[in-house]
Amino acid sequence: MNDLRSQRSTKEDLTADSREASLSEIVSAFSYALDLTEAAVPGHAIRCCLLGMTIAALMRLPDSERTALYYALLLKDIGCSNNSAQMCELIGGDDRAMKHDVKLLDWTRPSIGAVTALLRNAMPGASAWQKAGRILRLGLAQHQHNELMIGLRCDRGASIVRKIGLSDQTAQAIRSLDEHWDGSGYPDRARGEQIPLLARVMAIAQHLDVFGSELGMEKAISVMRARKGRWFDPELVNLVAALDREGTLRILLKGGNDEQQRRVVEMEPSAAGEMNSAGVDRICEAFADVVDAKSSFTYTHSLGVTKVAQKISAQMGFAPQTQKMLYRAALLHDLGKLSVPNSILDKPGKLDAEEWAIVRGHAALSQEILSRIPAFRKLAVIAGQHHERLDGRGYPYGLTAQDLSLESRLVAVADVFGSLTETRPYRPDLPLEKAIAVVREDAGSKLDAECVEALLQVVEREGRIGA
Q1: Which NCBIfam families match (predicted)?
Q2: What was the pLDDT predicted at 467?
């Protein structure tokens, strides 16, 4: 046990980070996770922020409004995981692929493009007649489906940003993102200047990046002009068209993701600085909720794993600062799971090789996203290794015992135990005795024996733990 305890500072020096991150550092990094929910080109929210804040500067918005807009642009998709399961059920297919395609459509009007997108994404493997029947039913109830999907996203997004402690202006802008100038949008069918100004700016910034990243800025400007007075505020369209003629938009979007994120962090209007510990925890807790909301089978998973990790780390006597790092790593360990379609997450049967490869990639994505926050780079490693095993048969890197810190081993044990005691689409939750038997059998070969022993001591004392 003494040898194992000495590993706490030998595997990439995984002691707790010495400073807290700033709000802009955290939110700009986490925006990459939100890009995953919509299958957007990576860095989508970052580019939207660059575009939207440039528009705001030209409009001479006051600092308070620019601050509200800044966070609304980065967090505009924070409610999107809340409708993923419903989208998957609605089309009988890949929710992320369908959401991606919808962004490029005028979904307020029937179109060949919409039918094509449904044919491509709905009910893969079904007959043409089955697909046609599904598409017909969707078309007949288009308004109800739009209202449901957008309402779920908008209300959830506004609720989460309020929980984080951001302004009501930010929440209202996120809630009104899909309103249209002519009243054809959702959730309130607001029109014209009834729509919050910040939401109108966000709608154009989002459109410019979606179309610009996929089809080029020329196409983005062309479609924006075509939707002037229908989707978009005419005055804002004129302003953006002038920016395009000057070449400002193309200059603005130069550079890779890292460079663009650095610029976004630097342009935060309020210069809020380093956050306190409680504020960082609130954001981590909120994003754990975002991840868990993606599937009814994981609705309390991150919270459950976190509670188990807390109990184990306290039982093992970790220092308070390290326990805090483990708390956050456990909350955020599945951040990359936002990249997995619900057609895979909620599949009741065995995954095929392609589906399994997608699932196996989520832990690396968690680490990649968290590593974008300088103060989170140590906990990022822990989060990214939660599916690694001592015998080298884990994923995504196939690491072995000598590569894994005690902290990484602890979160792995918490994740296994938490998963075993939760319902999955392919099995019911296991009784406590069976879950204990599984982790005990894997102790020393796949899972760390010291961490398992600490878990068993907690369970013996307290009974079932988790969410």
Answers
A1: HDIG
A2: 59
